Amino acid sequence: MIFIDTVNRLNQLPEREDPRFQRRRTLSSSQDSLTLSEAAAYVQQITLSQELASELVPIDSILANVLEVILQQLEPQQITVHALSQLAGAANDWELVLQTPPAEKPNNDSPDYGDDLKPQRHKHNEKHFECTLHGSDNSQKKVTLHFNIQHLQSDYLTSFKNLPPIQHLSTPYQAEQLEDLPARWSFEIDQDGESTPLEALYSYAPPAKYTISATGLQIWLQRAKDSLPILIGDTQCGYIYIGNYGAYEAHKESAEDTIQHSSDIDTSA
């Protein structure tokens, strides 16, 4: 368990909005004409590096341990979520590139054929948990965890959907530190990442004592204007919390650009 000592209240989820950092923004109302094919034509990546790390704070501990409770139920072995900044403290010359989740088109309120089926489809792509956080002073804080699970692979998706909807987490914090936590947390979870995203840090980070079952796992915290990457899976390092890292846009490449790059390759050899 990640534990960060504190004398302050845990009054917000991570909101590291340094103007130097550019993260994926959700589509605004002025972009409601964007089609699925246009959205799919772009691959947007963000880069994390040690120089953009901020100090771990108590909300990082809560987030990491809540996710550990969920993931543990999907693993046959005992797992531990470690913070990347605790594993790679001596390394400062690495970068981690992540592909952002697909941008979602805003809801269209106009009538459409099959509207009566939309609630079922919506429910099929989501999983909700009612989680009670237990304080060290016997206090309790109830929060709702919402997961967008549509990008999980079929077997893992089925297992995730079958998890109990009621969850509990014991914390080392007290009522005054828990009472102002947000009542609802929203996440995106996918398996679009690399199996060894932390390979550049293997000489610094010790291997995990367990084998992860979800290759390429990435979890993102949804916020008002963007999604913050907070956890990744690595086949050697295990599940790693990265929510205290700022991110900047690596590149945004269209399918047309990719074709152009391919045509520039010398094939005469």
Write the layout of secondary structure elements.
Elements: H1 36-40, E1 42-53, H2 58-72, E2 82-83, H3 84-87, E3 95-99, H4 118-124, E4 126-134, E5 140-151, H5 154-161, E6 166-170, H6 175-178, E7 184-190, E8 218-222, E9 227-234, E10 238-241, E11 245-254, H7 255-263
Parallel strand pairs: 2-10, 4-6, 5-7
Antiparallel strand pairs: 1-3, 1-11, 4-5, 7-8, 8-9, 9-10
Structure description:
- With 269 residues, this protein is of the alpha/beta class.
- The chain has a domain at 59-101 and 126-251.
- Helices cover 19% and strands 29% of the residues.
- It is built from 7 helices and 11 strands.
- It has helices at 36-40, 58-72, 84-87, 118-124, 154-161, 175-178, 255-263; strands at 42-53, 82-83, 95-99, 126-134, 140-151, 166-170, 184-190, 218-222, 227-234, 238-241, 245-254.
- The strands form 2 sheets. Strands 2-10-9-8-7-5-4-6 form an 8-stranded mixed beta sheet.
- Strand 4 and strand 5 form a beta hairpin.
- The longest helix has 15 residues, at 58-72.
- It starts with 35 loop residues before the first helix and ends in a 6-residue tail after the last helix.
What's a quick, concise take on this entry?
19% of the residues lie in helices and 29% in strands. With 269 residues, it is an alpha/beta fold.
The tally of beta strands, per DSSP, is 11
Termini separation (Å)? 54 Å
What is the count of helical runs? 7
Instruction: Please state the structural category.
Output: alpha/beta
Unreliably modeled segments: 5-12, 15-43, 105-121, 251-269
State the share of residues found in helices, binned by percent. Answer: 10-25%
Shape type: globular
CA gyration radius, whole angstroms: 20 Å
Mean pLDDT: 75
Question: What are the secondary-structure elements, in order, as H or E?
Answer: HEHEHEHEEHEHEEEEEH
Arrangement of strands in the largest sheet: 2-10-9-8-7-5-4-6
Q: Note the beta-strand portion.
A: 25-35%
Largest sheet, in brief, is: 8 strands, mixed
